[in-house]
Write a structure and sequence with these properties.
This protein is α+β, with helices and mostly antiparallel strands. It has a domain at 24-47 and 58-112: Nucleotidyltransferase, domain 5 (2-Layer Sandwich). It is 38% helix and 20% strand. The protein has helices at 6-22, 68-84, 102-112, and strands at 27-32, 37-43, 48-54, 91-93. A 4-stranded mixed sheet has the order 3-2-1-4. A hairpin with a 4-residue loop joins strand 1 and strand 2 (37-43). Helix 2 (68-84) packs parallel to helix 3 (102-112). The protein starts with 5 loop residues before the first helix and ends in a 5-residue tail after the last helix.
């Protein structure tokens, strides 16, 4: 087996802990690239995406995706979309990313938008 990068080790550790504690709640998954940030609420039981938002959305595009302000906007949008789909409780899956900066801004905005985690 190939040696895993530190990022992949963190991602596996986070995902394993979520599965142990999360139960049957959908997962709010975050991906951060150099330019954009993406968030989606995934129902693993059914294997489908319930809601999603990113800085690629048309009305967010005016803001640079690499800012905490844009990440907070994405967090609010994904919370609204999840509530429309009937999801209020999720588990936060930060992947291999540290809970800091844009990831933290997205999480706090999603909480303010009505998601519980």
């Amino acid at each position: 087996m190939a040696k895993l990068s530190l990022f992949d080790r963190r991602r596996r550790r986070v995902r394993t802990a979520l599965k142990a504690r999360g139960g049957l709640r959908p997962r709010l998954s975050v991906h951060r690239s150099g330019r954009h940030i993406y968030a989606q609420v995934i129902d693993d039981a059914q294997g489908r995406t319930v809601a999603s938002a990113s800085t690629l959305d048309k009305d967010v595009r005016g803001k640079t995706g690499a800012t905490a302000e844009a990440a907070a906007d994405v967090g609010k949008r994904v919370a609204e979309a999840a509530k429309k789909a009937g999801v209020t409780q999720v588990v936060f899956d930060r992947g291999g990313f540290l809970f800091h900066g844009r990831v933290k801004a997205l999480a706090e905005a999603a909480r303010e938008g009505g998601l519980e985690f």
